[in-house]
Amino acid sequence: MIAEFDVERAQKALHDGKEDAPSQLEAAEGAFRIASNRSIRADESMVRAVKRARYLALGIAFLLLIDAALLPKLTRAQNQRERTPLHPGKVELNAGSASDTQSLRTPLTCTVDWIERVSRFSGEYVAYWSVIAVFVYYYEVVARYVFNSPTNWVHEAMFLMFGMQYLISGAYAYLTDSHVRVDVFYARLSPRAKAVTDLLTSVFFFIFAGTILGTGYIFFNDSFGVREVSFTEWAIQYWPVKITIGLGAVLILLQGFSKVIKDMQTVARGWIT
User: Is the pTM of the predicted complex or chain greater than 0.70?
Assistant: First the structure.
């Protein structure tokens, strides 16, 4: 530190025989003692702040465990109270005879059910990441403004996490018909006309989703090949983030395939009736 440098300079002046060297050395040593005491107190304060931050982190982890245990139950209870379909895209069949029900269980319907379960699980899984963000940002605010000990990872981790959440939840949004749509004319169509429209426009959907899949693979392959890291001092590996581009594309392509099957069934039922 500067005080130590002043002491060394005063000692050198004393060795060279300068007249005012003794007074300079005395003043420098006094300033060095004061600076040393301040440094010791600052180190002790830092140790206390780190301990408090650790206790706070343990508290946040405990709250996350409580959240993980209670949120699924609360969600199911709320869905039961609302008495509305959780997933509008899923068609409910009226109870019929056992033979009728069994006849509906074709390989295609089984495939559709499996794809929708995967889409539903992926969307509901990443939805809880928003709760993690609340606790993590709360930790950052307390650490920064209460203990004057900001982190170097919270902001970057959260915007990367939200990017992954956006990519993975695309299939769930497609399943529940939650994507933004300009439906000035579409909303007035009959179910069969909507199905025909969706089938015709699905060509553009598959081109777009396929492009994302191919581009995502290129991004992931390049990132993994060079072990790409972020430009911040945290230097997190980017390939686990970029692999979700392809993963999200695969999920939404599967859900698009499921949607095409259901639209074809809707059109076929319209022709039969």
Answer: no
